[in-house]
Amino acid sequence: MPFTMDDYGNAIKSIESGGDYSQVTPNPNGNDAIGAYQVLKSNIPSWTQAALGYSMSPDQFKVSIR
């Protein structure tokens, strides 16, 4: 049976944060990993632009996932 995109997404989410959408993993350089999929703070503006069609700041992203 082939894997679906949901299977891959759930596996990534489980590995990265155990599925915890409020997870924030601090990095010594300040580029924290945020959310269930542990998106790096520096990637959030471009990632949300590509995924949602509009850019979010890291603070906006944190609030939107809780």
Please provide a brief summary of the model.
This protein has 66 residues and is mainly alpha-helical.
Folded structure, characterized:
This protein has 66 residues and is mainly α. The chain has one domain. 44% of the residues lie in helices and 9% in strands. Strand 1 and strand 2 form a beta hairpin. It is globular. The mean pLDDT is 94.
- Percent of residues in β-strands: 5-15%
> What's the SSE pattern?
HEEEHH
Estimate the global geometry from the Cα principal axes: globular
Count the beta strands.
Answer: 3
Helical segment tally?
Answer: 3
Please give the radius of gyration in angstroms.
13 Å
Number of domains: 1
Please report the distance between the alpha carbons of the first and last residues.
34 Å
* Share of residues in helices: 40-55%
Enumerate the strands of the largest sheet in spatial order, edge to edge or round the barrel: 1-2-3
| Poorly predicted tracts of residues | none
> What's the mean pLDDT score?
94
Largest sheet geometry: 3 strands, antiparallel
What is the oligomer described by this structure?
Answer: single chain
| Broad structural category | mainly alpha
Q: Which descriptors would you attach to this protein?
A:
3 helices; 66 residues; 3 strands; single chain; mainly alpha; three-stranded antiparallel beta sheet
